C-alpha cells in the first residue's frame, strides 16, 4: 500500500511544482549548510591527524614545555631545561633528538665598503639524530646549488636561509663567527643555504619547530651548540623514539616523570595526546555546527510545514473523497507524511550533493591558494555515514515538519471535507 | 429486513449562535434492489440525508440502521470499513483525484481495503470498460469530458462491489443529453448488478427511472410515490 501512498503523495508534490520547489529549497539550503560544514570539519580533522601521524610514528613522543597546550596569550614556544642523558636512560627509549635555541651575536662577511656584517640572530642546535632518524620533523628542505644538510660528523658548520646569507654577506664555504656564553666563540663554515621559497610567509621550516623558526635562524650541529652554551636550559623541542615492544604512552609517562623529578618543567606528548586534543577542538566545532545546522534546519522545517498546511487546505475535498471511499485516518496521515517526507528527501538529496560539492570546492581553493609545510593538503572527505545520515535525517525532517498538518488532515470530519469548495 | 432504516432521524448544525435543523424527524426505509429518488428544493436536507444513509455522518438524534446494524454502535474505523465495502458514492462534482489517472481513481477504494495490485488493476479496467471508458484508463480527469468523468466516478463507486449506490445529483453538472446517458447507465448497472440505489435529484426525468420517489421539504418527508414502470 506504501507504493500507492507514495504515488498519491509524489504526484501531489509534482502537481504543485512551484510551492514544492520553495519548500525543497528551504530544506536544501539547511542540508547543504550542514553537509558542507561537517565535510569541511572532517577535512580539517583529516588534515590535522594526517600531519600528526606523518610527523609522529606510533613509536614517537615529544618533550615540550609543560604549558605548551595552554599558551593562549603567546604564540612562541617556550624553551625549557632538560638533561638529554636522563631521557636516554628512561626504560624503553631508543633514540633521542633535540633542538635547542639561543640568540647569539653573529658576524659574517664585509660589504663593499669593508664594513663587517653583524647582528643578533636566533641560533638552533640540531641533534644529528634529528637529521637521520626523525626526517619527518625537518621536512623536505631545498638547498641551493653546492649546499647540503648538516651531517652527523660535522663540527663547526652552519646552515642559513637565503635572506640571512644576503644580510650577512656570505655564501657556501664562507665563515661566520658565532659568539656564545662568556668567551665561547667559534668560527663556523656555511655548508648550505636554504633556497628562498616563492611566498615570503610560507618559508621552509624545520618541522615542529616552525613557530619558533624564522627567516633569520642559523642552524648548527648540536655538539657545536653544546660547546657554545654548555648549560642545557634552552630546549625547544625534544623527540624520542621507543624501542620495539614498548607502549609509547607508558614510555612517555615514565620520561615525563623522570624529567620532572629533576626539575624540568616539561610535558611528554604522544600522537594520542594530540589526536585527543584535535578531537576536543572538533567537539567544540561540532557543537557550533550543530547549532548552525539546527537553525537552518528549523527554517527549512517551517517552510515544509507551511507548504503542507497549504497542501492540506487545497486537498480538503480530496481528503473528504478518500475518506468517503474507505480511507482511514491513518491512511490520510500516511499520505501527507510521505508527501512532506518526500519534500524533505528531495531537499536532502540535492542539498547533500551541493554541500559535498561546496566542501570539495573549499578544499580545492584552500589547497590552490595556500601552500602548507611539507606539501600537506586539505583532503576532501565524502563520508558515506554522513551522506546516509543526512538523507534519513532530511526525510525525517520533512515528515516531522508535516506531522501537524498531516494530523489535521487526518482528523478532518469527512462531511465537512466533502462540502468544502 | 430493510437494507437501510432510518427512524426519527434529526440533524442539527450549529451555525453561529443559532442552530440549523437540516433534518427534523425523518423515517425512511430502503429495501434491497430498490431505486429510490429523493427530491426536494435546495436546502431541504437531501445531501444531509445521503451522508447519514452512507455512514459519513451520524444523526443528532434518532436511529440509523444498515442491514439491521445500528450505526451508533460502530467505531470510526468500522464505519470507514462499512462504507468502503458496502457503499459507493457518486457526487455532483465528480470528485475525482486530479493527480490520478482514471484507472488509479477507480483503484483507490480497493487500495484502502488492501486489495492486491494485480487484482485491483484488472477489476478497475473491467469496470471502466463496463462504463464505456476502456480507451480512457490512462487519462487524468482534466483530459476527460464531464460525462466521462462521471463514468469514472461511477466505476469507482462500484469498485468494492457495494450493496448500495448513493448518487447526489449525479447529472447536476451535465448537459441534459449527457445526463440522460448517465442515468441510463446507472439504471442499467443497478439492474445488471442487482444494486440498490438512492438517487438524489432535481430532475423529474431522473426521478422517472426510480421505483419510488420521496419528496423532502424542510428536513421532513412530505410525499412518497411508488412508480409502476
Ligand atoms: N456543515 C453545515 N453547517 C451548517 N449548516 C449546514 C451544514 N451542512 C448543511 N447545512 C445546512 O443544512 C441544510 C440542509 O443542507 P443540505 O442537506 O445540503 O440540503 P440539500 O442537499 O437538500 O440542498 C441547509 O440549510 C444547509 O445550509
Ligand atoms: Mg445537496
List strands and helices in order, with pairings.
The complex is a heterodimer of chains A (421) and B (229).
Chain A: H1 2-15, H2 17-55, E1 60-65, H3 84-89, E2 93-110, E3 116-126, H4 128-132, H5 135-138, E4 157-161, H6 162-168, E5 175-179, E6 185-194, E7 218-221, H7 222-228, E8 235-242, H8 248-261, E9 266-270, H9 271-314, H10 316-324, H11 329-369, H12 384-411, H13 414-419
Helix pairs in contact in A: 1-11, 2-9, 2-11, 2-12, 9-10, 9-11, 9-12, 11-12
Chain B: E1 4-15, E2 18-30, E3 35-39, H1 46-53, E4 61-66, E5 69-70, H2 76-86, E6 87-90, H3 102-113, H4 117-130, H5 146-157, E7 164-168, H6 176-193, E8 196-200, H7 204-207, E9 212-217, E10 220-226
Parallel strand pairs in B: 3-8, 3-9, 6-7, 7-8
Antiparallel strand pairs in B: 1-2, 1-4, 4-5, 9-10
Helix pairs in contact in B: 3-4, 3-5, 4-5, 5-6
Bound molecules: adenosine-5'-diphosphate and magnesium ion.
Strand order across the largest sheet of chain B: 6-7-8-3-9-10
The helix fraction of chain B, in percent, is: 25-40%
Helices and strands of chain A, in order, run as HHEHEEHHEHEEEHEHEHHHHH
How does the helix and strand content of chain B classify structurally? alpha/beta
CATH hierarchy: architecture of the domain at 35-41 and 76-226 in chain B:
3-Layer(aba) Sandwich
Order of helices and strands of chain B: EEEHEEHEHHHEHEHEE
- The rounded distance between the terminal residues' Cα atoms of chain A is 29 Å
Structural class of chain A: alpha+beta
Using the CA coordinates, give the radius of gyration of chain B. Answer: 17 Å
Mean pLDDT of chain B: 94
| C-alpha geometry of chain A | elongated
Low-confidence stretches of chain B: none
Number of helices of chain B: 7
CATH architecture of the largest domain in chain A, by name, is Beta Barrel
Q: How many domains make up the coordinates of chain A?
A: 2
The CATH topology label of the largest domain in chain A is Barwin-like endoglucanases
Ligands in the model, by name, code or SMILES, are: adenosine-5'-diphosphate, magnesium ion
Amino acid at each position: 500500500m506504501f507504493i500507492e501512498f507514495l504515488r498519491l503523495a509524489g504526484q501531489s508534490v509534482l502537481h504543485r511544482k512551484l510551492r514544492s520547489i520553495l519548500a525543497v529549497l528551504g530544506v536544501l539550503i539547511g542540508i547543504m549548510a550542514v553537509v558542507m560544514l561537517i565535510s569541511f570539519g572532517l577535512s580539517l580533522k583529516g588534515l590535522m591527524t594526517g600531519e600528526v601521524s606523518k610527523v609522529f610514528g606510533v613509536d614517537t613522543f615529544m618533550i615540550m614545555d609543560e604549558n605548551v597546550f595552554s599558551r593562549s596569550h603567546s604564540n612562541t614556544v617556550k624553551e625549557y631545561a632538560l638533561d638529554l642523558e636522563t631521557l636516554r636512560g628512561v626504560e624503553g627509549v631508543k633514540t633521542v633528538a633535540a633542538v635547542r635555541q639561543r640568540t647569539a651575536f653573529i658576524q659574517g662577511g664585509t660589504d663593499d665598503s669593508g664594513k663587517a656584517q653583524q647582528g643578533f640572530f636566533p641560533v638552533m642546535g640540531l641533534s644529528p639524530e634529528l637529521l637521520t632518524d626523525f626526517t619527518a620533523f625537518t621536512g623536505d628542505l631545498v638547498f641551493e646549488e653546492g649546499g647540503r644538510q648538516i651531517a652527523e660528523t660535522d663540527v663547526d658548520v652552519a646552515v642559513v636561509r637565503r635572506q640571512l646569507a644576503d644580510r650577512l654577506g656570505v655564501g657556501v664555504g664562507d665563515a661566520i663567527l658565532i659568539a656564545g656564553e662568556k668567551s665561547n666563540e667559534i668560527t663556523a663554515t656555511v655548508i648550505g643555504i636554504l633556497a628562498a621559497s616563492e611566498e615570503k610567509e610560507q618559508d621552509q621550516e624545520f618541522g615542529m619547530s616552525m613557530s619558533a623558526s624564522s627567516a633569520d635562524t642559523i642552524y648548527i650541529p648540536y655538539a657545536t651548540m653544546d660547546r657554545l652554551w654548555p648549560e642545557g636550559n634552552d630546549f625547544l623541542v625534544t623527540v624520542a623514539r621507543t624501542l620495539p615492544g614498548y607502549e609509547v604512552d607508558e614510555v612517555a609517562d615514565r620520561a615525563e616523570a623522570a624529567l620532572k623529578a629533576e626539575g624540568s618543567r616539561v610535558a611528554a606528548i604522544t600522537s594520542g595526546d594530540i589526536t585527543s586534543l584535535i578531537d576536543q577542538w572538533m567537539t567544540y566545532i561540532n557543537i557550533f555546527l550543530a547549532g548552525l545546522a539546527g537553525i537552518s534546519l528549523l527554517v527549512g522545517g517551517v517552510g515544509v510545514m507551511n507548504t503542507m498546511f497549504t497542501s492540506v487546505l487545497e486537498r480538503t475535498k480530496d481528503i473528504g473523497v478518500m475518506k468517503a471511499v474507505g480511507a482511514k485516518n491513518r491512511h490520510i496521515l500516511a499520505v501527507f507524511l510521505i508527501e512532506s517526507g518526500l519534500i524533505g528527501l528531495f531537499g536532502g538529496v540535492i542539498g547533500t550533493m551541493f554541500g559535498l560539492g561546496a566542501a570539495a570546492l573549499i578544499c580545492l581553493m584552500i589547497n590552490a591558494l595556500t601552500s602548507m609545510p611539507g606539501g600537506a593538503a586539505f583532503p576532501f572527505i565524502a563520508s558515506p555515514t554522513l551522506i546516509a545520515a543526512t538523507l534519513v535525517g532530511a526525510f525525517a525532517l520533512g515528515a516531522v515538519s508535516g506531522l501537524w498538518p498531516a494530523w489535521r488532515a487526518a482528523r478532518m470530519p469527512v462531511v465537512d471535507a466533502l462540502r468544502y469548495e | 429486513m430493510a437494507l437501510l432504516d432510518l427512524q426519527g432521524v434529526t440533524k442539527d448544525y450549529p451555525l453561529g449562535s443559532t442552530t440549523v435543523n437540516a433534518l427534523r424527524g425523518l423515517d425512511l426505509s430502503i429495501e434491497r434492489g430498490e431505486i429510490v429518488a429523493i427530491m426536494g428544493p435546495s436546502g431541504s436536507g437531501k445531501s444531509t440525508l445521503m451522508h447519514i444513509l452512507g455512514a459519513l455522518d451520524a444523526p443528532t438524534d434518532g436511529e440509523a440502521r444498515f442491514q439491521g446494524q445500528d450505526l451508533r454502535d460502530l467505531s470510526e474505523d468500522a464505519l470507514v470499513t462499512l462504507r468502503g465495502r458496502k457503499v459507493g458514492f457518486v457526487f455532483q462534482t465528480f470528485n475525482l483525484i486530479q493527480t490520478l489517472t482514471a484507472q488509479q481513481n477507480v483503484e483507490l477504494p480497493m487500495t484502502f481495503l488492501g486489495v492486491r495490485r494485480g487484482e485491483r488493476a484488472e477489476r478497475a479496467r473491467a469496470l471502466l470498460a463496463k462504463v464505456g471508458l476502456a480507451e480512457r484508463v490512462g487519462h487524468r480527469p482534466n483530459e476527460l469530458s464531464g460525462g466521462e468523468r462521471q463514468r469514472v466516478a461511477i466505476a469507482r463507486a462500484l469498485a468494492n462491489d457495494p450493496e448500495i449506490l448513493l448518487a447526489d445529483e449525479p447529472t447536476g453538472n451535465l448537459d441534459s443529453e449527457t445526463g440522460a446517458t448517465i442515468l441510463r447507465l446507472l439504471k442499467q448497472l443497478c439492474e445488471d448488478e442487482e444494486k440498490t440505489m438512492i438517487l438524489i435529484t432535481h430532475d423529474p426525468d431522473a426521478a422517472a427511472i426510480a421505483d419510488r420517489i420521496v419528496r423532502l421539504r424542510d428536513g421532513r418527508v412530505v410525499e412518497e410515490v411508488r412508480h409502476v414502470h
